[in-house]
């Protein structure tokens, strides 16, 4: 398999990942990828043989296969399972705010929701389902992850997501750029209806031991619930729980590598520490 074919195969897998459980027709994959029908068909046949793509017998639609899940499961456990490490903190954020908490993992120019927990406030803001992939910059977690990239990488990411933005009518490239600039100034991201109108989200990044922004934790609620007066309290809470997750990541990485664990004051994220030392 050539490098070009490998890149095309990965692009097709990402398209399938974004399609959810319904999967995609061959013509949908061809249109979304810009490849010819024979090329798409040939790559899919190879992926089917390897078990990372499967085709439903009744609808003939393609979707990601079980082997990909097995590979992901194995990869997670080589060092740590982020969803597992963050589970307690996710529940705590939802419980203490009363709102919906989200955990998103960065995957290239996309953010993947890997966990969602609900609080006890009766009006819920379910802006995204677990397993959903969205372009960086859509929603508070996506803005936080995009803002954590260096400027050149962030600009390249925004160029890459531009063709997908028509699917998100509430989010223009200008609005995303403004949200990213604000996140860099303040150290946390706010989404003002970028996903759904009348919904406001707040998020902070989670960094690994090498200080790479690998994920983001945030909340979403109806706009009245995330007033400017309440915002500092939410940010402090998110930073505290992000710090707890980072400490668990550091402990897991330490066990895998044998290096000592660095400890930081609770409530201060690695992002904030980096800004102060810059």
TrEMBL record:
UniProtKB keywords: DNA-binding, Transcription, Transcription regulation
Molecular-function annotations in GO: DNA binding; DNA-binding transcription factor activity
One of the GO biological process terms: negative regulation of DNA-templated transcription
Ranges of residues in domain HTH iclR-type: 3-66
SUPFAM superfamilies recorded: GAF domain-like, Winged helix' DNA-binding domain
Domain IclR-ED: 67-251
Parts of the chain that traverse the membrane: none
InterPro entries: GAF-like_dom_sf, HTH_MetabolicPath_Reg, Tscrpt_reg_IclR_C, Tscrpt_reg_IclR_N, WH-like_DNA-bd_sf, WH_DNA-bd_sf
Pfam families membership: HTH_IclR, IclR_C
Name of protein: IclR family transcriptional regulator
């Amino acid at each position: 398999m050539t490098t070009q074919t490998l890149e095309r195969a990965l692009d097709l897998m990402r398209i399938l990942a974004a399609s959810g459980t319904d999967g995609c027709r061959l013509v949908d994959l061809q249109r979304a990828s810009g490849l010819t029908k024979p090329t798409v068909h040939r790559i899919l046949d190879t992926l089917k043989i390897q078990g990372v793509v499967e085709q439903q017998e009744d609808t003939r639609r393609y979707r990601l296969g079980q082997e990909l899940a097995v590979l992901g499961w194995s990869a997670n456990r080589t060092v740590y399972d982020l969803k597992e490490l963050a589970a307690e903190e996710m529940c705590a954020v939802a419980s203490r705010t009363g709102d919906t908490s989200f955990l998103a993992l960065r995957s290239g120019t996309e953010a993947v929701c890997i966990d969602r927990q609900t609080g006890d406030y009766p009006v819920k803001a379910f802006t995204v389902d677990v397993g959903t992939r969205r372009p960086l910059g859509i929603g508070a977690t996506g803005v936080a992850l995009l803002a954590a990239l260096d400027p050149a990488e962030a600009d390249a990411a925004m160029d890459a997501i531009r063709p997908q933005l028509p699917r998100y009518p509430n989010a223009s490239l200008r609005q995303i750029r403004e949200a990213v600039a604000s996140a860099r100034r303040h150290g946390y991201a706010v989404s003002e209806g970028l996903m759904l109108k009348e919904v406001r989200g707040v998020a902070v990044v989670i960094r690994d031991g090498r200080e790479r922004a690998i994920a983001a934790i945030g909340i979403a609620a109806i706009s009245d619930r995330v007033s400017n007066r309440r915002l500092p309290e939410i940010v402090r809470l998110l930073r505290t729980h992000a710090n707890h997750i980072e400490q668990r990541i550091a402990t897991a990485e330490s066990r895998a590598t044998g290096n000592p664990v660095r400890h930081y004051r609770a409530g201060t994220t690695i992002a904030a520490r980096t800004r102060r030392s810059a």
